[in-house]
Amino acid sequence: MKNKFLLLFAFFILAHSIFSDHGPLTTGAGATLIEPTTLKRFQLSAALAIAVSQYERLSDADIQELTLRMNQRGSHVDSIRQSLLSTVSAAIGVTDSLEAGMRYRYYRGEEVREGLIDSGGTYRSIRLGNIGGTADPDLYLKYRVLKTDRHTLTFAGFAKVPLGKYYTTHEAKPLSAYAPQLQPKLHLTGGGNAGDPLSEKYSIEPSLTPGSGAWDFSGAVAWSMWLGEGASLTASVLYTRRTAAQNYKVGDSVEGGFSLQRRWGSRDEANFSLFTELTARHLMPAVSFSEAIGNTGGTMFFLSPGVVFAWPAGLSVSCFVQLPVLRYVNEPQQYLAYRAGFSVAYMFGI
């Protein structure tokens, strides 16, 4: 039973990416399914997960071409080469059916650039360099409402707390360097306040920073069915409602899908499992100063194969790769090439 749980718990740990919106405003974040299994009463778990997202390579000329295609003042196209999101997680079984947990993150984006048509109609190329800092943590509750020999059904709720950094601290530039572009309709803003040492630094929109500066709330339902012979089917759907901060709002999202999993080896010995997920995510356009940003949001479908290794002592190691297979996005925007993730989880009782 313990190794079965470790397999399911590892899937849940990999799901950290669905509560973050970093990088260009593509729908490239994707989703990993939420597992309906909960910790037993007074069981504890801890995990470290790392996810690397690789985006399509765009030259300065490519960014300029995409930006000018919009042909509108205030239009902009964001570009990032690669991002890394590391997550430390902890959870406890409050009862056999109720689990509570939290996740703490660090985010880094590399080679962040932006093409912008300023208020005067002039194209500008902005190089922001690398962005890094503490991302917004989140809290969650999972409540299992059904458990039989074959079926498990769980509801979950999440709250992302705006405690992460919302400005860049790497290669930040004086605000005066962008003064000609700072119009109310545009997304460029000054960071901090008079008492903030970064008050004269340039701050970028929340979708590109480690923290968004806003509360997010999510609700989910997850279901699994035991198919026999070490095989199981899992499905989940999650809706995220995002709030606005600094006159900016990342779009709400709906995501979900299903997964097939197959385990080899007894639960009482070292074993491994393979899984394949097919997931979809729909992201609404972002909103800046009450105006929708036309080249944000859309729908994407992902195929995510992976493997989990588990040991009776309570340790599991997981890895996966997430590949976009279909996209219907609001152009023009940069595409996700792929995402790869790795996690180590440990469960123990008290």
TrEMBL record:
InterPro entries: FApF
Name used for this protein in its record: Transporter
Organism (species): Turneriella parva (strain ATCC BAA-1111 / DSM 21527 / NCTC 11395 / H) (Leptospira parva)
Record's signal peptide: 1-22
Alphabetized UniProt keyword annotations: Signal
Source superkingdom: Bacteria
